[in-house]
Structures are given as C-alpha cells and as structure tokens.
C-alpha cells in the first residue's frame, strides 16, 4: 500500500474567463501543496467553465482553451508548483472537439484523456459538441497507476471503469461539473461504490461549486475506497481545497494487457518514484444537508453567480408583501448582502394595506433599501387612454410595475429580479412582462409554491436558532396568496389549493405521467384534465421568463423542451 | 423496367394534432388515388408533426402515435383506399423511441423502418430522443424492391443508401421534414444524385410545407433517376399532391444477400404482383425561386402557421413608418389578409410627421386596420413619476408602446407581432419589452437589416409587375433608419452602416469566424472588435425575444445556443 495525499479542489469558475480560471488553479494548487498534497484535482472544464454550449463550435475558442492549458502548465512551474501533479478539465481539439482532462507536472502536459460517455439528455447536449474518446489514459506516478475519467463516465455502464478494472489501476480520478438537483446527492455515493468495485480501486470524485445561467453545481466531492468505504465527503456548496490521504495499491510490472471491444488503454509514466511510507490521516465526512438547506444554498449560489458574473452588484425587485417576493429578497440578501438589494413597493388602487406594511417589514428585516412608488396615476392614464376593463385592466397594472422596475434598472444599474414561481409558470397563471416575469433572472422559476413556503419557514427557523432576525415576515407566510389586481382577488379563485396543484404538477411535469395515470392515483379527474390543459398551453409564457436556478429533475428551460405550437392534449 | 406512378404529398401538418394529421393523409391519398398513383409518400413524422421535441419523452405520446398509425391504416381501407400503398412518418416505440416510417396497405401496417442517421447539430436534437435503427427495410410491392429511409439517412455517408445498393433495390423512398434555410435547395439535388448512384436506384424525396415555431419547411420535393436525371421537382412552399411516373428495375430472385457491419436488411413482401406495362408520362420540373422570393415565402408560411396553429386569426403590431414594421405588416397581410392585420401608430414627442404619414400610407396600401394612439400623456406621467432622463427616458417611451400592444391583444384577441430584425438583435441595439421585441412572434428575428430592405424592394417590384399596389411605402425604404426616441436620433449614431455591420455579422455569427480572421479580410479592426463585443454581451436580450422564422444557417434560438453568463472575448 502507498498513501497518496490528494487535494479535492471544490472551486468556482466563470464560463469563458480562461485566464481568470487558470489563476484559480494556480492559487488553489499552492494552497494544496502547502497542505502537503501530491496531486490536486480540479472540476470538469475548469479552464473554460461549464457548460460553454456553442462556444465549442468556434475554432478560436477551442484554440484558446488548448493554449490556456499549456500556459497553465508553465504558470504552475513558474510558481514553484511543478512537483505537484494537477488534473484539470478543459476543451481539447485533436481534429475533433473533446471534453478533456489533462495531467500537468513539471511545467508540462504529461497526459490527456478524452471523455468517453457523453450525456445528451436532460440539461446535457454533449453529443452536439464532442466526439467520445476511445482510450483510457493511465498515468504511472508515485508508483501508482492512476486512471483519468470525466463525469458521465461514472453514470453509464461499460467503458472507462470496466477498462480501469481490467488494466489493474490503483486509483481512478473522476472530475465533474455535475449540476445540482434535489436528491441527486443520494444517488452519487451508491454509484461511486458500485464503480469502485468495478474498477477494483478507490475513486476520487471532485465537483465544482458554481452558478452558470440556469445551472448550479453543488460540489459534494468525495473519495471512496475500493471496498466502498467513504473516506471523505465535502459539504455541498462550500468552496475550498480539501485534503485526503488515500491508501492505494502500487503498480505492478508488467501491467495487465487489456483487450476490450470499445476502448484501448494509453499508458504514460512520469518517472516520479514511490513516496516513502506514511500513515493515512483521517479526513472529515460532512453531514448531509436537509432538503430545504440544499435548495436554499442552490438558490443563493445561483443568484450570486448570475449577478456577479454578469457584472452587476445589486438587484431591484418589486416587493408586494407576498411570499414569493419575500423569499426572492431574502435569497438575494443572503447572496449579495441586504445593502445590495433594492425593494420597491408599487401599490395600485387594489393593493391592501397589509401588502404595503408586510413589504416594508420584509425590507427592514433583511436591511435592504426600500421605496414606495404609487402606480395609480400612470395606471389611470393608461386605462383611460385605452378604455381598458377586465383582464386587460388587470394586466396593465401589472405591466406598469414591470416597466417601472426596468426604468429603475436603467437609471441605477441594478439587475431586475423576477419573482414568479414554478407553479404559476407551469399553468400560465402569470402576466407576462410584469414584476413577476420581467428582468434578468427569476430565482423561483423552478421552485413550486409549496416549496416557497417551506423554504421561508426553514430560513426563519434557522435564523431563530442562530439568534438572528428571521428574514421573512410571518404574515407573508400565513396570508392567502393574491395577485391584488382586482378587489378581493385570491389565487384560489383561479387555481386549486397549491398542495393539490403541486402534487399534480410533480406527476405531470416532472414525472411525464399521463392524465389517466394521475387520475388513477386518486386525483379529481376534471381537475387533472384542467391542469394538464393549462400546462400544455402555457409554453409561450414559459419561454418569455428570464433564466432561473434549476433545482428539480425537470426545470422549465434547458430540461423540458416543448413546442409552443402544439395541439397535443392527453385525454384521461 | 416497371413504371410506378408515385404521388409526392408535399403537405402541412400540426404538431400534436394526430387525428387532424391522419385526416390529411386520408384526404390526400384519395386525391393521389384518383390521379392513378400506386404509392403515396408523406413527410417524416407526418402523423405527429415535426419537431415534437420533448413530447417524445412522454410514454403517453408515443403510445398515441402508434395507435394513430393503426387507426390510419384502418381509415384508409374504410375509405376504399386499401389498394394504394401509403408511406408515412410517425413516432414508434419498440422498447425505445424511434423516428419511424410505415408502409400501409390493405388496412394494415405491412412494414416499419427506423431512421438510422439521427441529426444532432444545428436545430436538431434527435440523439436526445431516438435510438437509431439498425436494419434497412425493403418492401417488395408491385414487383419492385422498395427501400424505406428517413431524411438524415440521405445527408450522412454510409448506412441505408450503401446498404440499399448492396441489396439491389429498385427504388428508395426518402421522407423528410427538412427545415428551410437560404441556399439549402442548392445542396439537396446534388446530394440526391450522389445517393442515387450509391443506391443504383431512383430516389423519391418528399418534404413538408409547414411552419412550426422557429422552423419552416419548404417542400422542394423531387425524384431523381439512378443516373441522376431529375424526373420532377415541386415548387417550394406550395402544398399539394404531385404525381410522377418512375421507371424502376424489377426485383430479382433470389434477392442479393447483404453483409454489412452496421445494418442488416429486413425484407417484406406484399404479394401484390407487377403492374401491366405503361409508358411513363413526363412530370413538371419547377423553376427555382429567386432568393428574395424564397425568403418572403418562408416568412409568410412561418407567420401564417404560427398564428393559425396557435388559435389566433389576427395580429396587431406597432407601425412606426420605418422599414421593419412595414415589412412585417406586408408579410402579415400576405399571410392572413390585410383585414386581419391591425396597425397601431403610437407617436411620442420625438416622432416625426413622416413617421405618422408613412405608417398610415403602409396600412392603406395593404388594406389593414389603422389607428393612432398618442403616447405623450402616459409617457409624461411615467417620466414624471420616476424623474427619468437619458436612456431610461428613451426606454420608457419604447416600453409604453409594448404595454399598449399587449393591452390591445388582451382586449381584442390579436396576436402581437414584434418588429425587431436580426442585425439589431445581434448587437443588442434594442429596448427589451418594446414594440420591437414584445409579443408572440417576431417575423424578422432572423432577417438582417440589409435583407429587410431587399425584401421590401423585391415585394414592391413583384407587385408592380403584377399590376398591383406595392405594399411598402417607398419613403419607408429610402429614409435613414431611426428609433425616434430622442430628437434627430439615427441608427447611424450608434451603429456602423448596415452594409458593413451585416457583412461582419455574417462572418462572426453565421460563420463562427474569429475576430482576427475577419480583420484579415480587410474590415476595420476597431469596428470588428466593437461589433464582436456587442454580439458577445447581448445574449440575454436575444433570449427575451419571441420566436421568429429561421431563414439562415445560424438563427438565434434553436441554432446558436450560447451562455448568457460568458466572459469569452476574442481579441483580434
């Protein structure tokens, strides 16, 4: 047995910022080397960020990624880090585009590996961009045969892990940019255990912590031994370099010959010999986060990175006194600090007194900026100009608020946050171009209404436990939801109870279940048909929403891609 | 030689309308049978429409498609059309989802073929949905061995056409839903000639005429003989059933054994014997359309189907007197009739007199509805309420117009058309949520400004040649473009000449060329860098636009998928 000290660099990156991302690699490698690590692993596509989408199709981008890798190898050596092995993801091009991992040492690119299994489902389109690699790269370093793999290689049967087993490797490194999704962390560990058994070796898994448009990456990096023992697990959503000592079997000569129908093996040796024997130090295993904590962190990281990486420092949003805008504001305050959050109350003739006081209470609790701008004069002018009544009058009230927020963004430079939630977006219960749907980012786009309430309760309870002011006004949690666009309007006039609605949506949207199936589960038949029809006809509205952080299996947007023009109706 | 009378059904479909699409197949088969056709070919995914996107992932949808196919076979027989062979596209599921073609005869599904080459580039995501077929289906019918293929099978080397050649078939049927793109029709014929040589047999190619969200299908159906002779070509964008007599080589016994690494051959026989000898009648070869005519037709079909298939009858748009809104209105009048087009002039304090008179002139020429609603009072109220100046004041003017159009849509039930063009969208020279970017559909989203002018000139010239009133006011074509959001504002204050801008955009956007490459072609270096930076930072704006008809190689939307959060900047 040899004990290798690995460092898992669970870090952030910015799509397209190749020099900035390379700087992070150098700084984090220095940190790892200072902690005695012999090898540092960075996430999939660390150098380019992930996903870069159609940037891969630009030859200039692929060239820049390759050049940045060479420069990084040099920069590491120049910083005196040439003896620390660095494994890092980037985009390569050997005649065709590749999702690649490189092994850097002594100022050089010692080995490259091209991802074999390319995901092309859910949020992934990697068959659009990359050609699969057909050879497993095994690097002999410090007396250990180390196999390089990338993300999806872990999730599909056959290929790299099977071949690693046949090749008799001592360790498999798996670098990831694996997007967060509720309960996904429950799947990763059993999968690693299974693949470690197939490979007959420990697996070190590293994932980024980053927000990128709709995606957020939650880290959850870990190492499992060949027998499935969890050697370390890093807390989700925490950035840093985490060191772990991994006992591994030394390489033998001659290495086993591998005959496989799908992949060959490419062996590379660094000529750095076995290290002296050492006793492995135990590394921490982070406790699992509760579901609400996970989602809250995902929303905070998603919002923080979307705002910051797009060059904004502050956000503006409409605060109505309702639960949605309260939760968006509280997430924004956690992400950016209350001093960078600008809440605007925009009362109309139908706004209740409590909507104003609850909004003001919210903003006070999170120490954000508050102003109130009565909309009545502009709305009256609009309604009079066009002689509006009914839904048209309701919608103009809502859109005047959207236009007001965009004007404040123009004047003061804040990014506008939309406050709409997934339930209303699913059924099209939304005025497009209002304060719920306008702007740069919609944090609750993938959060069903019942979860919005649960998050509010969880965040308040957490604050109380920490002796801090709960950010959400209790009244915003308990009062019945209303758009306040006509007298005494309530959501329940148009929609079923959110408990029931969300249960149907989870089945119809996330589960792709049919109307008949859902009715057979005991839901009211007429209601299921009505909800399905609302979902089926709201695609245009969903397309008009700004991006928002994906937290579910089927987020609207990258995950669930449906035609707008669509006459398909399931009859139950 | 046997002479087969084929019918090419170059027809429309509606995504998700399985019964409606089946009705079209029955009606068009009756028409073909009356013209003496022995076999009728319908487009790829005729029964479901194309593309159905994530509907394929719903098991209920796949079941419905299979059931609709069985019902269609029965309905054809019930209509007395059981003796006419029908080849039709649909979605199948034999454990995995398939893009399939069926051969119907005598009330039964006699044979099925599963598409082998699945496109996963440009607008296509078929690897997301389907599993490739591994067997070429050859149907012996009327004494001829007929191979079934689908769309992309034609565009990639190897596979079905090679195997068809080895199998000694007499005829290859290729059913398509092949989206329009400028100059694509120049590629299709040489490709068919090449594949006919590989197969050693004539190829019959049928394509739909339909608009579906961003895509429009242009028909261009044709038949080439084994030696490459073009036997017939149907005019683009014209719906109908087109009959052609095709001389084919009769089948031999035993049929050749095929040994191929990729595909097997599945042979099916209908037991319908060879027909009596007949002399082939020549079929027409449609002349090619000029580029502007092609694009105009694409825009008309795209708009007509988006409006109609989404259940609207009429459209409303802002008419500013400028060229963009004039062309959108003229396209809408050609698509829906002037009586279904509602033009709204919305003058502000900075609107010129000619903007009003040109707008009125336009609406009169196309016999549409006109009204003028001065925006001054609402704008003044808004500007006063928020103390706006500068860009914020300009944008509020523009957004008040957007809100006005949405209110008219709410009140009167028209679909709102956005009037923005591809050039301004590319560089982000647009106020989001204004009359240029708001609403259900943006017809010029993929039309560069210089092409907008060319289309206007072409359409006016065509009208003059036909002795009709040219729809576009000449003044709208010749005056310098302006947003009229401040005194004496011109586009040229902010942008280079559109001739130069469009030339740079064609290279940077459509061509994925690098900044250095474009500068090396002789463009001004500073200007190229400025334009590239504007394009790189405008992705959020592009995402907020409603869909529009794709006419170019790289339309924004389905074709060119870039991150919003993106620090990549090419230095030249």
Keywords:
six-stranded mixed beta sheet; seven-stranded mixed beta sheet; alpha/beta; homodimer; 572 residues
> How many strand elements of chain A?
19
Strand content of chain A: 15-25%
- The amount of helix of chain A comes to 25-40%
Oligomeric category: homodimer
> C-alpha Rg of chain A, in Å?
26 Å
Determine the number of helices of chain A (DSSP H or I, runs of at least 4 residues): 17
The most extensive interface between chains reads: A-B, 76 and 76 residues
Mean pLDDT of chain A, rounded to whole units? 96
What is the structural class of chain A? alpha/beta
- Spatially, the strands of the biggest sheet of chain A line up as 13-12-9-8-7-6-15
> Could you tell me how far the N terminus lies from the C terminus of chain A, measured between alpha carbons in angstroms?
62 Å
Can you summarize the main beta sheet of chain A? 7 strands, mixed
Q: Which word captures the global form of chain A? A: elongated
Low-pLDDT parts of chain A are: none
What does this structure look like?
Two copies of one chain form a homodimer. In chain A, a hairpin with a 5-residue loop joins strand 12 and strand 13. The first copy, chain A, contains 17 helices and 19 strands. The model of chain A has no long low-confidence stretch (mean pLDDT 96). In chain A, helix 6 packs across helix 12 (449-465), helix 7 crosses helix 12 (449-465) and helix 14 (498-510) crosses helix 16 (525-536). A seven-stranded mixed β-sheet of chain A has the order 13-12-9-8-7-6-15, covered by helices on one side. Chain A is α/β, with parallel strands linked by helices. At the A-B interface, helix 2, helix 6, helix 9, helix 10 and helix 15 of A face helix 2, helix 6, helix 9, helix 10 and helix 15 of B.
